[in-house]
Amino acid sequence: PPPDPERSFYYPLHLDLDLERGPWDDDDFDVDEVEEGPVLALCVAGAGDRRTLSRWIAGLQETNPALSRIPVVFRLGGVTTCQEDPP
């Protein structure tokens, strides 16, 4: 007999998902309080200069023009390297 067009092994009509929390789920989490407010995007750039970050935010504004009205805070930090003395 031909297969039933309304039933498919790959796209079942009924999914029986167990959405209960398991013993491995972590109910405790920490929320860091920040002075700036909610963080909506994060950029980790190889070159942390103003030009690179300006291009990044301009690229985001192409698809979301509302970003031009939202205050943007950049934290430019230096690269820290950990060098240990050989044993």
From TrEMBL:
Any one cellular-component term (Gene Ontology): mitochondrion
InterPro entries per the UniProt record, alphabetical: ECIST_C, ECSIT
Stretches of the chain forming a coiled coil according to its record: none
Domain of life: Eukaryota
Pfam families: ECSIT_C
GO-annotated biological processes: cell surface receptor protein serine/threonine kinase signaling pathway; innate immune response
Domain annotation ECSIT C-terminal: ranges: 3-77
Name of the protein described by the UniProt record: ECSIT protein
Gene: Ecsit
